[in-house]
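Lecture notes, unit on protein representations.

Consider one protein chain, 473 amino acids long.
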Amino acid sequence: MVDSPVTAVERTDVVVVGARCAGSATAATFARAGRAVIVLDAAALPSDTLSTHLLWPAGLAELQRLDALTAVEALGAPRLTRAYAQAAGYGVGSGFPSVDGIDYAMCVRRTGLDAVLARTAVDAGAEVRSRCRVTAVLWDGNRCAGVRYLDAAGRTGEIRAALVVGADGRRSTIARAVGAERPFLTVPSGRDCYFAYWRDAADAPRHIAAQWRVGADLGTAFPCDDGLVLSLVQPPTVSDLGRGPGAAERRYTEAIARLPDLAARLHGCERVGRIRSATGISSYFRRSAGPGWALPGDSGHFKDPVTAQGIRDALHYGRTLAESADEVLDDPRALDVALSAWERRRVVECREIFHWTNRLARGETLRPLEIELYRTAADDPALAVITAGIFSRTHRPAELYTPSRALGLAARAAVHQWAQLPAVLADAAREIRDVGGEWRTTRTTLRGDASPATPPPSTPLTLTTAGPGEHHA
């Protein structure tokens, strides 16, 4: 593809590609610091995007830091004040740990959420342009120096900037252009993801975020705005032969049928709209910073939606990227040091929840130690609070599986599941192997050192496609 002649060349401090969660958080933070920011998005805004959009208290705290929480709450999603998880017949309920005074969760559909975030960036002083597709990254030697793009009228423009931020999702145009598209760590998910909205029943418990597990299936019900409830299922992944026309409808309805308590929660509800699907998912870390460029959000790091961490991390690392880079934006050498430190910080802070997410995303039948964990947490409020806190990042997974607690779980599992003692012992041995493998990965691949990326070209690289946007859980 050959671009038409450039009709305009602009200069700004920061150009952000992608105007959704990570992009708007980055833009708003830079703009409030007095920096000139232009945001480009290929989509018409506001618009929907593939996302399961549950926000734990930590995610809502990020909206509060951006001064966007009040506007998001005005969209009408209920406050979810209780978490409930059920497996093997054991139900675990708890409140949410408080983050910056917020002790509730919310499930907010992306069209409204993203519109609020883009408006927040504009109100902070950023310029947001929709239907502008980036076609090339511009270079000054080996340094990223801007982008070339096509606007809605088909005109080609160039924006020169001290920093190019790729907040354009898993299929990131910017990641591809700077040679960072291939992750340095990838873990395929063992689950597919299907979700749909339902018109909630009048007597539904709209203050509870609920999850059910039966066998290898997992399903959720999260009340959201406009009187709807988002119901997601994650059955074990299937080969391509199990997909094709009608597969999403079939797999979604079959999974709900295998989750009787989810089916009961949806009784009296009317499904609204089509079933959405995300298959072939992998969690990953990409190289996320280099000379003049950075990748917050899914463009640089993605976790399976089973733990619903994507929006929080997009907001958090978009904001902290801007906070890290603002004061050194005019000094290329200092900027590169700051970007590298920001990248290392994200790896270090996210690696434990990355491992935890990958465990839950295996798509396996409930293991003996998992069953015992649910059995114990059903009668232990402190354990239930720790579990809820892991999802909101106020507790670490290591607090759940301390050596003494893991030993106790194994002992109780042996007593309660005596008939399956070989399976209990095999599960305990596997747990030891898993912990060892995660430790090795943490000390090697995820130790926080930058992974080398492919050297960028010395001339502008023209691309024919742009990423379709962010997919967050």
